[in-house]
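Quick bug: AarF domain-containing protein kinase 1 output formatted oddly.
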Amino acid sequence: MARRALKLASLTAATSGIYMYGNKFLDPNDFGIVRVGRAIATTAVITYDYLTSLRSVPYGTEEYEFLKSQVHLRSAERLRELCCSNRGTFIKVGQHLGALDYLLPEEYTRTLKVLHSQAPQSTRQEIEQVIREDLGKEIKELFMSFEDTPLGAASLAQVHKAVLQDGRTVAVKIQHPKVQAQSSKDILLMEVLLLVVKQIFPDFEFMWLVEEAKKNLPLELDFLHEGRNAEKVAYMLKNFDFLKVPRIYWELSTRRVLLMEFMEGGQVNDRAYMERNGINVNEISRNLGKLYSEMIFVNGFVHCDPHPGNVLVKKCPTSGKAHIILLDHGLYQVLSESFRMDYCRLWQALIKADMKRVQKYSRRLGAGDLYPLFACMLTARSWESVNRGIDQSPVSASEDMEIRSNAAAYLPQITQLLNNVPRQMLLLLKTNDLLRGIESALHTRASASSFLNMSRCCIRAVSTYQRSKSLSLYRRAQISLTEALSLWQINLYELFLWLKGSQLGNWVIALLRRMHHST
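Here's what came back:
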C-alpha cells in the first residue's frame, strides 16, 4: 500500500512538473516561496558583504573608500538581479532608486538605471487573457490590427500599437496579469527586510521608500485613475500649445486596460534626433522647464515620472512647431498649499542666494540643522555654488563629480533627511533628478532661462496666495502691482540676456564701446 502511494505521489509530482514546464502561464518566479526566498537570500548576502568587507580597514582611508565603492557596486548588481527576477513591484522600486542620481551613491544609480530597459514582457496569451477578462471580447473583435511586439514594456504594464475597427490608431496599455496580486505581498516583504537591515545598521533609513510604494502603487495600478490624471493635466496646462497629452478612450478602458490616442516621437534626451529633425534643443529644454515650474509652483499637481521614455518630442509637419508629448500619468504628487508656498519661497531664496531665507524655509520643510545638505540636494550644486548663487555659473564637470561623490560620503545624513522631510518632497526630489538628467543629456543644465521661468512661477504663485488671504482691496491691488513689477524686471533681464547673446546685442555693445572711447 505504501509502495503504491509512493508511486502515485511520484507520478503526480512528475506530471505536475511536466505541466508547469509546458504551461506558459506558470513561472517559478511567480510562486511566493521562490520570490521570498530570493529576496531574503539577496538581502542576507548584501548585509554580510557590508559587515565583513569593511570591518578590518581603517575608516576614511583611501583603501576604505575603494573597498566601499566595490561593495556598493556588488550590492547594486545583486539588487538589480533581484529586481529582474522578482519583477513587478521590485523593478518599480529599483527604477525609483536608479533615478536618485544626486542622492544615492553612483554605483547604485548607474547600475539600477538599466531597469528602465529591462522590464519584463507579458506573452500574447497573457495579454489576450487580460483583455478578455476586462473588456469581454477577443483582440480580433476589438481591433482591425494589433501589433504583437510592444512599443514599450515597463514594470507594471506594456503598451501595444493597434487600429480600432473604425480606423483610429491607438496605444493600448495592458497591465501585467500577476502584478496586482503580487504587489501588496511584495511591499510587505520589503518592509520586513528593511526593518531587519535597520536593526543591523541603525543609520540605514530607507523606510520612506516602502511608505511611498504603499501609497502610490495602488494608484498606479488603477489605469482609470491614470486616465483622469491625464485629462486633468491636459486641462490644467491647456495654455501651453506645445504640450500634447494623448486623449483617453473611456469606452474601452478599465482598471487594467487603458486605450489612448497614439502619439509618437523621439525621446526628450535624444539630442541627435532633435538635430536631425530641425528641433531647437534649447527651446525644448526651456519649454519642459516651463511645464514643470507651472505644475510644481503654480498648480501643485506634478507628473513625477519624467524619464525620457515618458517625454517625447516631435516637430509638427504643418506648423513646424516642436511639441512635447507627455505620457504615463500614473504617478502624480499633489502638493498642499502650505508646502507649495514654503517650497516656492525656498527656491526664490536659493536663486537670490539669500542664505537666511534658505535656512528658514529649509527648516520649515523638515531639514533642521542639515539645511546646507538639503539645499545641495535640491539644487544638485555644491554649498559654495549655493552661497555664490546657483544662477551665476553653469555646473562644471568637477562640481558634478563632487556632488556625486558626496552622495556616497553623506549617505547616512541624506537618508536621515529623506525620512524627516514631508512625504510630498520625496517624489519632487526624484522628479528634479530626472529633469536634471534630461538637461545634462541636452547640455542645457543650469541655464539662466530655467531659473527665470522658475522665478516667474514662484512670483505668480506667492502673489496669488497672498491675494487669496487678503481682505483689503487696497492690499490686493498693492500685491498685484508688486507682482507686475517683479515680472517686468524678469522680462527686462531676459531681454538683456538675449541681446547679450545675439548678433544684434554684440553690435550694440560694440557701438556703445566706440561711443565711450570717442568721449
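Actually, after a second look the formatting is fine. Residues 311 and 472 are 44 Å apart (CA to CA). Closing.
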